[in-house]
Design goal:
The complex is a heterodimer of chains A (232) and B (476). By secondary structure, chain A is of the alpha/beta class. Helix content of chain A is 29%, strand content 21%. Chain A is built from seven helices and twelve strands. In chain A, the strands form three sheets. Chain A has a six-stranded parallel sheet, sandwiched between helices. Chain A has a four-stranded mixed sheet with strand order 8-5-6-9. Chain A is globular. Chain B is built from 22 helices and ten strands. Chain B has helices spanning 12-20, 23-43, 47-66, 68-82, 92-106, 117-121, 124-130, 140-148, 164-174, 184-201, 227-233, 254-266, 301-306, 321-324, 327-332, 343-354, 371-375, 382-394, 413-426, 429-441, 453-456, 467-475; strands at 85-89, 110-113, 134-137, 204-207, 211-213, 218-223, 237-243, 247-248, 273-277, 291-297. In chain B, the strands form two sheets. Chain B has a six-stranded parallel sheet, sandwiched between helices. Chain B has a four-stranded mixed sheet with strand order 8-5-6-9, sandwiched between helices. In chain B, helix 9 (164-174) crosses helix 10 and helix 16 (343-354) runs parallel beside helix 18 (382-394). The mean pLDDT of chain B is 95. Classes of the chains: A alpha/beta (232), B alpha/beta (476). Chains A and B meet through helix 1, helix 2, helix 6, helix 7 and strand 9 of A and helix 3, helix 4, strand 1, helix 5 and helix 8 of B.
Chain lengths: 232, 476
């Protein structure tokens, strides 16, 4: 038998066994909102402070800045860390101001992974990405990699710099996925990222930088405040 | 217990005695389990909130299992529409054939694999190696074990029985050019470097899945290291394998299960990555696999499912809290069980996977203290299931039900005889009085050897007079 017919046979057998069992009335659909703890705030200074404290607890570095100053923050960061090559995606909300922030350090993620692999794995110091939103409860970032910002941009370089707008904070992951109606259409990859990669597989001793980024820097843009001249 | 001889569930008693006699192993399990127990407790400070969350998690899993056939078909439909190839496997060898077929079509000599218990269940590494394919474990703990030819002793912390000195020796022996060090940061850096090129070059990435979302056709992976993300992002082909029970109906059911899983497993409010994969690379995307496969494995799960008394077994989300809290597991360690899934959850899952003959001792490896059932984040009544399996191992299957595999395998004539005699005596008053009169008079004839009882205790001997006789005397 070919593998496909073999799989079809297994499928039929498994479903037949499941269908042969005496049917049981399905319990009512679970009420998720009622079972979860009451939400905290998803916006305002207190929420931002909570988010930052939580993210730092997971060993992320959080730098607060304004909608006008973030390129300068990025430049200072690149200089302080001695970054020689910083990778970013074109056509994002950040892209226009990245050349001014990074100058000759900036590399664009232009090629498909297969061609770009050798340089991505060996010659890139950091990847910069936008962030879809932040989760206050756990200090997490929500990333939706796409055509402009591939998955490996936030994964392979040893340093991940994430630019997060405070206006996109949500109290919990659940609130965020319900409000944004994720179930209606997910991207190929949706991620919740909390701190740099880590492991405790040797004698339970916590070590950062397992296989993903060794460090995570969150540039937290306070676009949620009045008087900055930028719409919230 | 590393290397040559693989532990077997049939040898549970021998293996657990050996483990009990190893003070270093016991100390490492004890301290690791205490650590995990404390970390979990710190995550659930409010018992009321915990109970609400847990009952939500329980309902979500019960609900999904009640609709299992329907949800599997919906999942398959949505995955197929996204371009994911869905395969079904009744047995481990079915699943391995599917892997081999995919590897052959791509001419693959190597695979990188994220942590997956189901891949251990089908012994994927060994099967691939037999066909010249190098399947590399990339979870740090699993990688260490693979280098050493050892197997996991805990489903969440697989290398918990290894010390940093062990790891240092293994790395120095097996990874060319690595310096001898016992610094854990350096050891992890060595592992990271060694595996990087494997990630870069492997044509196929293999993972398990913590959850499958029927309504969106998504595979969900929970991890800290980033190896799962690499396996699902870098290779051209991604193959996920998991049990048919992992499906949940809706995406919004994920957040409560995710938080129950991470808090119960390692006492973390959240892991570094929650990775939701929905279909292969789309037009214009620069990375991600061009081909995604999902293998749905039965391997005895339908047996647990079809019998309402055992269905709750499949609610499990593989957090490992039951083993962390089990006084037996803490003392005998994970390898003693000789099964892919050790501890209390292993004792209730393995009989469906391997049959009750090979696994007859596992459900007896419990004091029935109830800790496992109490900490289970999805409300599996583990102690009750253990009792039912003990019964099923020893009794003839009831004619009106489909029997479990090897049901009644542990039935012994002597035991049956003893229970029949007991039932006879205790249901007939005159016979009982006659028996107890003789038993008390002939008490000195009771044998000094009474099987397992006298191995650690003094022999049982009837009192000089029965309570009934004493009361009758007093009334006189």
């Amino acid at each position: 038998m070919t593998p496909d017919t073999e799989s079809m046979r297994a499928r039929a057998a498994i479903l037949a066994r499941l269908r042969a069992a005496p049917p049981v009335a399905a319990p009512a659909s679970p009420d998720v909102a009622a079972g979860l703890a009451a939400d905290g705030a998803g916006s305002g200074d207190a929420a931002v402070a909570d988010f930052a404290a939580c993210a730092r607890g997971w060993r992320a570095e959080v730098i607060e800045t304004t909608p006008t100053r973030w390129p300068a923050v990025l430049r200072d960061l690149a200089v302080a860390r001695g970054l020689r090559s910083v990778l970013a995606g074109r056509d994002t909300e950040l892209a226009a101001r990245l050349p001014e922030a990074l100058g000759a350090r900036l590399r664009w993620y232009d090629e498909p992974l297969a061609a770009f692999k050798p340089r991505l794995f060996d010659a890139i110091d950091a990847g910069i990405t936008t962030v879809r939103g932040g989760v206050v409860e756990t200090g997490s970032l929500v990333l939706w990699p796409d055509v402009r910002e591939p998955r490996t941009l936030s994964l392979v370089p040893p340093l991940h710099i994430a630019v997060l707008c405070a206006s996109t904070l949500h109290p919990t992951l659940y609130r965020m996925m319900v409000r944004e109606r994720w179930a209606d259409g997910l991207p190929t990859n949706a991620l919740l990222v909390t701190g740099p990669s880590k492991t405790a597989d040797i004698q339970r001793l916590l070590v950062y930088g397992a296989h993903g980024p060794k460090q995570l820097v969150i540039v937290l843009v306070r676009d949620d405040r009045d008087g900055t001249g930028v719409p919230a | 217990m590393s290397g040559d001889r693989q532990p077997r569930p049939q040898d549970f008693k021998v293996q657990s005695r050996a483990a009990l006699a190893d003070p270093a192993l016991r100390a490492s399990f004890r301290s690791a389990m205490d650590f995990l127990v404390d970390k979990r407790a710190a995550q659930f400070p409010d018992i009321g909130a915990y109970e609400r969350l847990r009952s939500l998690g329980t309902r979500i899993r019960e609900h999904a299992l009640a609709k299992l056939p329907e949800l599997l078909e919906r999942l398959e439909q949505n995955l197929t529409a996204l371009g994911v190839q869905v395969h079904w496997a009744e047995t481990p060898s079915d699943a391995n054939r599917i892997f081999l077929d995919i590897a052959a079509r791509h001419g693959a000599q190597a695979m990188v694999k994220g942590k997956s218990m189901v891949s251990e269940e089908i012994e994927l590494n060994r099967e691939m190696a037999a066909h010249g394919i190098d399947c590399v474990e990339t979870d740090m703990g699993e990688y260490i074990l693979q280098l050493d030819g050892d197997r996991p002793s805990h489903i969440i912390m697989p290398a918990i029985h290894k010390t940093k000195a062990d790891v240092s020796r293994i790395f120095a022996e097996k990874i060319p050019g690595s310096a001898h060090t016992e610094d854990v940061d350096e050891l992890i850096a060595i592992g990271r470097r060694a595996l990087r090129e494997r990630f870069r070059d492997a044509p196929i990435g293999v993972t398990g899945a913590n959850f499958l979302v029927a309504e969106t056709g998504s595979l969900v992976l929970v991890e800290n290291e980033g190896n799962g993300r690499l396996c699902t992002s870098v290779p051209e082909v991604h193959v996920a394998i998991t049990g048919i029970e992992k499906v949940i109906e809706r995406l919004e059911h994920l957040p409560p299960l995710y938080t129950l899983l991470t808090r119960s497993a390692t006492g973390q409010a959240v892991t570094t990555y929650l990775n939701i994969v929905t279909g292969p690379r789309r037009a214009g995307e620069k990375d991600g696999p061009r081909e995604v496969h999902l293998i749905l494995l039965d391997n005895g799960r339908t047996q647990a499912w079809r019998d309402q008394r055992f269905r709750a077994t499949l609610q499990c989300i593989r957090c490992g809290a039951c083993m962390n809290h089990c006084p037996v597991y803490t003392r005998v360690g994970g390898l003693s069980y000789g099964t892919t899934y050790p501890g209390p959850i292993g004792a209730i899952v393995s009989p469906h996977l391997l049959g009750l003959d090979a696994t007859r001792d596992l459900p007896t490896a419990s004091s029935l203290c109830g800790a496992c059932g109490e900490v289970c984040p999805v409300g599996i009544p583990i102690p009750e299931l253990l009792m039912r399996l003990r019964g099923a191992a020893r009794r003839r299957p009831a004619p009106e039900r489909k029997p479990l595999r090897d049901e009644g395998a542990a039935r012994s004539r002597a035991e049956t005889l003893v229970w029949t005699a007991w039932a006879l005596l205790y249901s007939r008053a005159r016979l009982y009085r006659w028996f107890s009169w003789w038993a008390t008079r002939l008490r000195r004839l009771t044998p000094a050897w009474q099987g397992g009882w006298t191995r650690g205790r003094v022999p049982l001997r009837p009192a000089p007079r029965s309570l009934r006789e004493l009361l009758a005397q007093r009334r006189r």
